[in-house]
Every structure is written in structure tokens, then in C-alpha cells.
Amino acid sequence: MHEHEEGDVTEHTELREDATPAKSEGARTPLASGERAEASPRRDRMPASLPHEGASLTPAQGPDVGSEAVPVPVESTSPTYVYALGQIVPRFPTLAVEKEVAQVAGQDAVAGTDRQALQSLLAEPSNRYLARQMCWVFTIEGLETFILHPRVPGDVDLLVESIRATPRRTDVDVVIGELGPIAPPEMCNAMMVPIVFFDHVYSFDVDSLLGAIPRPDDVEEDEWEAATHEVFSRVTQMNDNAGATDADRALNYLSVRYSGIYEKAAERFAANSSLTAVEVRPSRLSGTRNIVDVIFTYVDRSTDVTDKLFTRVDVTEEFPFLVNKLQPFFERAT
After folding, report:
1. Does residue 236 carry a pLDDT above 90?
2. How many helices (H) and strands (E) does the chain have?
3. Residues 314, 62: Cα–Cα separation, whole Å
4. Quick check: helix, strand or coil at residue 238?
5. 3-state helix, strand, coil in the chain (%, to 5)
6. Residues contacting 54, CB < 8 A, separation 6+
7. At what angle do helices 246-257 and 221-236 cross, to 10 degrees?
8. Cα-Cα-Cα-Cα dihedral sign, residues 62, 63, 66, 71
9. Which residues is 298 bridged to in the sheet?
10. What pLDDT is attached to residue 282?
11. CA 240 vs CA 230, 317, 326: distances in Å
């Protein structure tokens, strides 16, 4: 069993009950069965970190989104990775781009709602020049948080695929990349938020994600659905989760890639326990690798007895991964 000192908490996140995630039509779920589910690449509408102040825009990042590359000074600081959950929203960076899109839509006689027309128009290979000119904004809980820029120019297709013809509140986009500098005023109509140079983007809807998790035989379907939705809401919709800290990246990773947190939650709820807290602490096993312990605290509603479970996540590099499955957690005596 693993022991920890009680005073080494570096991240402690209180939970909220009022989360509202999001959905994507036709999307496949990133969570497959098993303890560590993987997302399949989302080239057809399916699932998938961020940049630091002063990062340079390299030739690989290119000038393909938002007209021109952003020249910024190079610094030798370590990269800040992002693993964020939110929604991708296309915006017109200038009046000229908006008028060009309207003109092309008129020529092609694009039908449907404005959203459907934009999706249809940008999906045409001949109109990729418009997709590269668009401003792709990443919002978290409705707040404009990042401007997305593909590290590889061809990945603008992932942004186009993220557009839903009929957007819903349960749509979720996942962005994995590196945090860059604050966008200059001319890049996205004076939207002064950080740029994220992404390596992967994928999308899903919450119902499909949670519906793909194998339900234990001894748990009723309605109880299972309620348990999985509550855990997803609490883990992913906490205050100030922009997916750019080790704690946020670990939590966001677990919420979309590890079914064990839902299975254990259903067991605890069925045993009359409440999920009262989630903590993220540096692991005592950290050395050359940056490993965090994610601790889930449950309290028995009848006896007030506390029960803790934890799992370890390696967040050293851009793509987090599971180190061990959920298991009992015991505080180290001081």
C-alpha cells in the first residue's frame, strides 16, 4: 500500500455540482472498455495540451491559420503542455474573411442553417484557404480561453471536423498541445488570449463517452448512468480548469481515458457513499518523471467514515498516461 505525507498537498480542487458538459453528432467515444481506454484518431469526427509566453512560431507551425505567422521572441523556458476540455468555435478574424465566406456560400448555393452552411463550405477541399484564414477559438465553460493553431498545417482539417451542424450542450472537444504567447491584436480581431499550438484535437459527446463504459452486472442501468454523469461533471467542470497545470491535465486525462474512476464511483454510490473531494498531489515516486497522485475521497452518508482511492498519472510530457489503477489510499502517519 502507498503512503503519503499529509502536508504535501499542492493541488486541491473543490468539486461543483452544476457541471454542463457537451455533444457531437456521429462522434465515436474515446473511452473503450477496460481500465485504460484509448481514443481512436478523429479524422471522421472523433476524439484526442498548450504554449508558453514567449514561444516562437516555427516553420512547422506555419502561417496557415489566421493569415500570417506570429513573430515572437524565442525563450529557453520549458514548454507548458495543455490537455483541455471545452468547445471549438470558429470565428471570422476580419470583415474581409467574413465577406469572402458569404460570397463563396452564395456562389455554391449552400443550404441549411448558418452553422450547417459554414460546416459544408469549409469541408470542401477547394475552400481550405478559408479554413486556414478562420480564427479557431477554444472556449471552456463559455469563456474564450485559447486560440488554436495547428502545429502541422494539414491538421486544420481537425478543426473543420470539429464543427457540428447542430451543436449541443453535451458536445466536448479535447485539445492536446503546447501553450504559446498571447495572440497579437491583428491575429483574431483583437482577442487577447494565449495561442495553443496543438498536436491533436478530437471530439465526442458525453452520452456516447459514458455509454461506452462497461456497466458492472450488479449495478442497475439508471444508477450507473447517474453515477457516471455525476463523476464526469465533478471531475471536468471544476473552477479554473484550463487544462494547463499538471493537476488539470491529469484530471482531464482520467475523465476521458480511464473508465476505472466511473466504475469505482458507481460501487461507492451504491454503498451509500458521497464523492466529497478530489485532490492532486505530487507522487513520492516522482524523480526523473513527473508523476501525480489523484485522490478521490468518499464519505459514508450514514457513518461519516472516510474512504479514499487513488491512481497515479504521469504528466511529464505532452501526453499523460496511467501509471497504476485505482487502489485504496492511506495517509502517511507524521
Report:
1. no
2. 8, 13
3. 30
4. coil
5. 25, 30, 45
6. 72, 73, 74, 75, 77, 181
7. 160
8. positive
9. 275, 307
10. 93
11. 19, 22, 25
* Residue 136, pLDDT score: 96
Q: Which stretch of 185-194, 201-210, 239-248, 268-277 has the lowest confidence by average pLDDT?
A: 239-248
Which amino acid is it at 199? D
3-state secondary structure of 48: coil
The residues that bridge with 194 in the sheet, in sequence order, are: 182
Q: What is the pLDDT of residues 62-117, one digit of tens each?
A: 334 443 444 444 444 789 999 999 999 999 999 999 999 988 888 877 777 778 88
C-alpha span between 55 and 79 (Å, rounded) = 8
Lookup result for grid cell 495540451 = 49
Tell me the backbone φ, ψ of residue 311, rounded to 5 degrees.
-135, 155
Residues in the chain: 334
Grid cell at residue 90: 470558429
Contact present, 81 and 50 (Cβ < 8 Å): yes
Whether 297 contacts 306, CB under 8 Å: yes
Every domain of the chain and the residues it spans: 3-93+134-332
**The C-alpha cell of 172 is what?**
466536448
Which single residue is written with the C-alpha cell 479514499? 308
Rounded-to-integer distance, Cα 170 and Cα 43, Å: 20
